[in-house]
Each structure stands twice: as C-alpha cells, then as structure tokens.
Write a structure and sequence with these properties.
It comes from Neomicrococcus lactis. By secondary structure, the chain is α+β, with helices and mostly antiparallel strands. The protein has five helices and four strands. The chain has a domain at 9-80: Orthogonal Bundle (Arc Repressor Mutant, subunit A), CATH 1.10.10.10. α3 (38-45) packs across α4. The radius of gyration is 15 Å and the shape is globular.
Length: 110
C-alpha cells in the first residue's frame, strides 16, 4: 500500500475543512446538479447573501469551486466534475456504513 504524502494529507484535510461546515457541504451538494449564482444558492439554502459570499470564498480558497463571470452575474460550479461523483460516492459510503448515523434532526456521530 502506498503511504500518504504530505500533499495527500493536506488535500484531504482541505476537503474535510470544506465539509465540516453544513452550509459549505450543502453548497457543494447543490452544485453537483448545475452551476448557480450566489443569490440563487442563498435563497435555496436559506442563508444570507453575506454568509453565502463568505462560504463561496472559502470553497474557492480550498479549490473546490470556480467562479465564472457572465455579464453582471457570476456563476459558481464545482472546480472539477469528478468532485460531484466523489461527493455522491462519499455520501453513499457513509450511509452504507452507518445508515442510522444521520437524520434530518442531526448526526449521532458527534
């Protein structure tokens, strides 16, 4: 088995940081379907535009989302389409390993 390099560790830590916040996780899951504007994401997720801006800045800093200006709008998308598949696989794995771990009310793993 190949050992993890410091780069591997840093990359996964960065992903873990992004997923450690519920709003950021919801943004990533929403962007699996299609690119979106920050205002639309804020409305869909029920957060303020300022909060959405802060979370998108964090996700851009982590290299997980990319912004594409289009006229007066900016569209956000996953930085790599494989991220959408990876998130789906990770979600499926977590729910397979412990199907009772999380409910709409919260996770029992805390």
């Amino acid at each position: 088995m190949k050992s993890a390099t410091p780069t591997h560790t840093s990359a996964l830590t960065q992903l873990g940081h992004a997923l450690s916040d519920g709003t950021r996780t919801r943004i990533l899951l929403a962007l699996r379907d299609a690119p979106a504007r920050p205002s639309d994401l804020a409305t869909e997720l029920g957060v303020s535009r300022q909060s959405m801006s802060n979370q998108l800045t964090c996700l851009r800093g982590c290299g997980l989302v990319a912004a594409q200006p289009e006229g007066r709008n900016t569209w956000y998308r996953l930085a790599d389409p494989r991220l959408g598949s990876a998130l789906g696989d990770l979600l499926e794995l977590v729910l397979t390993v412990d199907p009772d771990c999380c409910t709409p009310e919260g996770c029992t793993c805390r």
